[in-house]
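URGENT: need a sanity check before tomorrow's submission.

F., can you look over the RNA polymerase sigma-70 factor, ECF subfamily record below? I want to be sure the sequence and structure line up before it goes out.
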Amino acid sequence: MAFRITGNKEQAEQIVQDAMLKVWSQRSTWMIIDDLPAYCLMVTRNIALKSTMAILSKCSFLSD
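Structure tokens as predicted:
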């Protein structure tokens, strides 16, 4: 999923690592989460989208 959003293998790998660290740091809330795999995908997607938007914003700023 991260690669489909970013189109960059290295960036996608970093995003997945960041997502897993975030999920792991919130492990005390896992009992509340109904579908942990879906939650992991959601976290990964959100980080990938934020990362992509930050890069696009930076590129837009630099081109102005």
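My own read: The radius of gyration is 14 Å. The chain has a mean pLDDT of 91. If you see anything odd, call me.
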